[in-house]
Design a protein that fits this description.
Layout: E1 4-10, H1 14-27, E2 32-34, E3 43-48, H2 53-72, E4 77-81, H3 82-88, H4 90-95, E5 101-103, H5 111-121, E6 125-127, E7 151-155, E8 157-158, H6 169-173, E9 177-178, H7 181-193, E10 198-202, H8 219-227, E11 234-238, H9 247-255, E12 262-264, H10 272-277, H11 284-297, E13 302-309, H12 316-329, E14 333-338, H13 356-380, E15 385-391, E16 402-406, E17 411-414, E18 425-433, E19 437-442
Parallel strand pairs: 1-2, 1-3, 3-4, 4-5, 5-6, 7-10, 10-11, 12-13, 13-14, 17-19
Antiparallel strand pairs: 8-9, 15-16, 15-18, 16-17, 18-19
Bound molecules: 5'-deoxyadenosine and iron/sulfur cluster.
The site of 5'-deoxyadenosine has 12 residues, from strand 13.
Length: 443
């Protein structure tokens, strides 16, 4: 079989990064190897995101870029997968005449067959059925899987059983299905064998792991099992839901040495009224108690979050409650987004009371406050000794700088790495602190 080149463009969350990696793994069997250059490619795949309108709009503009390549090379295969594919399906084929394949989020395992069918028949193809949970099969990582990453992801579940009023994910990713724990552990072991030191477990509500199955272990028990795997030095997970952030789980995080002292848990709003309207199923006080308890066990714990600003019913008073909440809780970082109405969601039909400019103004105000907090917390780390995993994140390499991550997940730049290599874990004294990054020297 002729060697072929595959170019994948990934939008959105870490789940998509994981899925794109697994697409590349599966398509190796069809003789595709990955290229960074779309002009060299025999196949271009876009793995898309529709959580907000911005990334969704990028898909069509990206596809426009490849129209010319397709005209020059009619054998080029162009495909779209991920959440936009799931949402639009067949309609995308109608809208973009030069598109060949549309594969929904649950059709990932079927992609090699779809490609074979397309190459044999030349018939454009769309497959977007959401699979029923009892027949859903995850793409399996094969024992010969190789990666250069020292930090990698493991998807432990797919879908989401929550119905947050603003969120399109349950519609694009279907209901929750947990990957059998045996498979999760096997996958972690395969990664460890390939040199991976740090694993991030992925799930839309990662800590509800196992609840969809009769005889499955809990998320806390899964952490315990992964903690025993030789070669894995660090365990992270994203994103937990406050509803399932139980005392058992908090105690496990504290007790298990390989589980890092960093929690990324979305709060979304500091107003209980808005939280209720969003159907988040917790109050801000509960969230605060959980973080307080965790900090009492691990004072060095770093906490980050997601926030939506300008929900249709968010008043000035509600927004101020969110600002107050940030001041009280002192997150290390917050990812904040202006509310974006999404089709199919419950809040889609709510009339927006704020203009885009008003939403942006609130967003800027919140971001300014968080920046102040983040930089203060960063500077508090100056002079401390932090355990760092040197990774091959290429960012900053142009300046001959290396970088790694602390246990709390802060990025640290190091000018002189001495005899250390990527994948090593060692102590660093922090010398400078910025909003998102630190600088340090090896001691
Ligand atoms: N508008 C704005 N932000 C959203 N998010 C999810 N849905 C929307 C929406 N409709 C944000 C949430 C979530 C993050 C991944 O994206 O904060 O945690
Ligand atoms: Fe969306 Fe809520 Fe599920 Fe998160 S928990 S993916 S915000 S529905």
């Amino acid at each position: 079989m002729k060697d072929k080149k595959l170019h994948i463009i990934t939008f959105g969350c870490q789940m998509n990064v994981y899925d794109s990696d697994k697409i590349a793994m599966m398509l190796k069997d069809l003789n595709y190897s990955v290229t960074d250059n779309p002009a060299d490619a025999d196949m271009i795949l876009l793995n898309t995101c529709s959580v907000r309108e911005g990334p969704e709009n990028k898909v069509v503009s990206q596809l426009g870029r490849f129209k010319k390549l397709k005209e020059e090379n009619p054998n080029l295969i162009l495909g779209v997968g991920g959440c936009v594919a799931q949402q639009k399906g067949e309609e995308l084929l109608k809208q973009v005449k030069y598109l060949d394949i549309v594969f929904g989020t649950d059709s990932l395992p079927a992609l090699p067959d779809m490609i074979n069918t397309y190459t044999q028949t030349g018939k454009r193809i769309s497959q977007t059925e959401i699979q029923l949970s009892d027949i859903y099969k995850f793409v399996e990582v094969t024992p010969d899987y190789e990666t250069n990453n020292v930090s990698d992801f493991v998807k432990i579940m797919k879908g989401c059983n929550k119905r947050c009023s603003y969120c399109i994910v349950p519609f694009t990713r279907g209901t929750e299905v947990s990957k059998p724990s045996k498979k999760v552990i096997e996958e972690c072991k395969i990664l460890a064998k390939s040199g991976v030191k740090e694993i991030t477990l992925l799930g839309q509500t990662v800590n509800s792991y196992g609840r969809d199955k009769k005889n499955e272990i809990s998320f806390a028990q899964l952490l315990e099992k992964i903690n025993e795997i030789e070669g894995i030095e660090r365990i992270r997970f994203t994103s937990p839901h406050p509803k399932y952030f139980t005392k058992d789980l908090m105690d496990a995080i504290y007790k298990l040495d390989k589980v890092m002292e960093h929690i990324h848990m979305p709060i979304q709003s500091g107003s209980n009224k808005v939280l209720k309207e969003m159907r988040r199923q917790y109050k801000s006080e509960q969230f605060l108690e959980q973080i307080k308890y965790m900090r009492s066990l691990m004072p060095q714990l770093e906490v980050t979050t997601d926030i939506i600003v300008g929900y249709p019913t968010e008043t000035e008073e509600d927004f101020n409650l969110t600002l107050d909440f940030l001041k009280t809780i002192q997150f290390d970082n917050a990812f904040s987004f202006a509310y974006s109405p999404r089709p199919m969601t419950e809040s889609f039909n709510l009339e927006e009371t704020l203009t885009l400019d008003e939403k942006k103004a609130r967003l800027n105000k919140l971001m300014d406050l968080q920046k102040e907090i983040s930089i203060k917390k960063s500077q508090n780390l100056i002079g401390t000794i932090q355990e760092v995993l040197l990774d091959n994140d290429s960012d900053g390499r142009d300046n001959n700088q290396y970088s790694g991550r602390t246990r709390g997940n802060r990025k640290v730049y190091i000018d002189d790495i001495k005899d250390k290599k990527i994948g090593d874990i060692f102590n660093v004294k922090i010398t400078e602190g910025y909003i998102y990054t630190l600088k340090g020297i090896i001691i």
